[in-house]
Each structure stands twice: as structure tokens, then as C-alpha cells.
Amino acid sequence: MDNDIAKTLYSQNDIHEACVRLGEQLTTDYADKQPLVISVLSGAVFFTTDVVREMDVYADMDFIDVSSYNGGLESSGNIDLVTDLSTDVKGRDILIIEDIVDTGRTLKYIIELLYKRNAKSVKVCALMDKPTGRKIEVKADYVGFVVPDEFVVGYGLDYKGLYRNLPYVGVLKPEIYE
Questions:
Q1: pTM of the model
Q2: Gap between the Cα atoms of 133 and 153, Å rounded
Q3: From the candidates 29, 50, 99, 102, which is the catalytic residue?
Q4: Cα dist. 82→17, 54, 67, 68, 116 in Å?
Q5: Could you tell me the CATH number of the domain that includes residue 80?
Q6: 36 in a structural domain
Q7: Which of the residues 34, 44, 122, 126 could staple to 140 if both were Cys, CB 3.0 to 4.6 A apart?
Q8: What's the CA gap between 38 and 62, in Å, rounded?
Q9: d(CA 141, CA 11)
Q10: In a domain, 169, yes or no
Q11: Structural domains of the chain, count
């Protein structure tokens, strides 16, 4: 897999340092709350487990799976709810953990869904933010890295289901997906 990567953007150490930094901030911000942490499947699983381990607060966890890429390079614009939450969000402080905020469509869909279900508050923690990809105005409250406009894989991010298990984030060589 390493041979398919043009360059490494964020090393294992870079990611660990971001998780520690974000975990400390989340510990402070949620000190008097018991948030429901919602991991967005499948890409955010690695990041979720690493950042939640750095949080020193009582927290519940759940998972949601939405899809807009369908294995391609760009969002289709249509959001499908693949797997719904098993937890009632009514009156809860919600922390969505996402791998990357790109077009904003998926994140907006999830936030609106949670507020429609009467969540008390909704905040977003993203490993990466790609503002150049934004189609809908939405923002993450906590961000590990601002990523350039390149096709990134690793540490949960995939291309056609592959590369998620790379321990770093790298730029995929164009000849792999062209």
C-alpha cells in the first residue's frame, strides 16, 4: 500500500499529537457534561477511538453510517442513512467525530438529523478539514488538521474501501484512481 502513496501528510506521531491536543480541549469543554459521542462510520473509527481515549470525561458512544461517495472520488450529493443510531439523542449534548469535513453535505445532514431529534447541543470534532472542498457552509468546532485539496487516504480514509488501515494520512498517487 505504501507504494501507492505520493507523500505522507500526517505521520502517526502527528496524528497522536492532534488526538492528545483535541482530547485535552474536549475534556475541558465537556467537564460538566456526559456527551454522547457519535462516530461517523467507517472512516472515523480510528480517530474516534484515539481521541476518546484522550478525553477524561464520562461519555456514551454510538455510531452512524451515512454515505455520499459510494466508492468514488467526489460526493454524489445524495446522502443515504446506512446505519442509524441506537441511542435516543433527545436532550443530549452530542459530539460528532468525523474523519474529514469536505463538501459539508454529510455533516450538515447529520447535524440537522440530530437537531430534528431534539438534541440539546451538537458539536463536531474532525481529524481533518478541507475548506477548499466545501459546497455547503458547515464547520467543525474542533479540528486536527486543515488539509490541502488533495485526495487523501489512510487512518480511516479510503479509496474503494482500501487504505483505511494505513497508520498515517497520505496523498494517493493519481495513477491509482485515474
A1: 0.93
A2: 16
A3: 102
A4: 32, 29, 7, 10, 18
A5: 3.40.50.2020
A6: yes
A7: 126
A8: 5
A9: 23
A10: no
A11: 1
